[in-house]
Amino acid sequence: MIDIIPNLPTASKMRGNCDIHVLFVKAASKIPSEEKVKFAYSLNIRNQLKPALPSGYWGNSCVAMYVQLTVQELLQQTIWETAELISKSKRNATDEYVRSFIDFQELHYADGITAGKGVSGFTDWRHLGHSTVDFGWGGPVTVLPFSRNLLGSVEPCFFLPYSSAVHGGKKDGFKVLVSLPETAIVDFRVEMARFGSKL
């Protein structure tokens, strides 16, 4: 994993997920055009369930959602069209879908569940509340995933909040934790430097 936190511009200069997405689209230009790419991301389901999960519940409250298209489609359409596909997939997260997802996980967990070959997972943890939770000894020093395989993805990208304990409750900015194959690291750093110089 590469921690690119120090190299990222501040959130006030970034437009968010779309800017990071552009970097991945540029990287995709080196993949054969007929190859399928899949975006995997976590969706908070606290209010999707009927009844909704109670306030203060700290168990798993996310399900994985997916958008799949070919590299050619990804490169030809605008970023907003890709964002619309993601938005449409979020609307599929009904109570029935969530319960079906839970049943599937229960049945197949021991087999090892993945999202497929070469999946890039994007998940935004900034609004889950992990950075402000206090179980009696203060807030967390940092918020990080336990595993990079949370979305069944071998290349996840996590948008993470700053800790309220360390950063004095600041809400400005965020950290991005990116996982890449070792062969892509040099090109990714070049793209990040080029991206940062334009801000």
Report on this structure.
This protein is of the alpha/beta class and 199 residues long. Helix content is 29%, strand content 18%. It has helices at residues 17-28, 71-76, 79-90, 95-108, 185-197; strands spanning 2-3, 36-44, 62-70, 120-124, 155-160, 175-178. Strands 1-6-5-4-2-3 form a 6-stranded mixed β-sheet.
Determine the structural class based on helices, strands and strand pairing: alpha/beta
Pattern of helices and strands: EHEEHHHEEEH
Low-confidence regions = 1-16
The oligomerization state is: single chain
Distance between the termini: 25 Å
What topology, given as strand order, has the largest sheet?
Answer: 1-6-5-4-2-3
Q: What fraction of the residues are assigned to beta strands by DSSP?
A: 15-25%
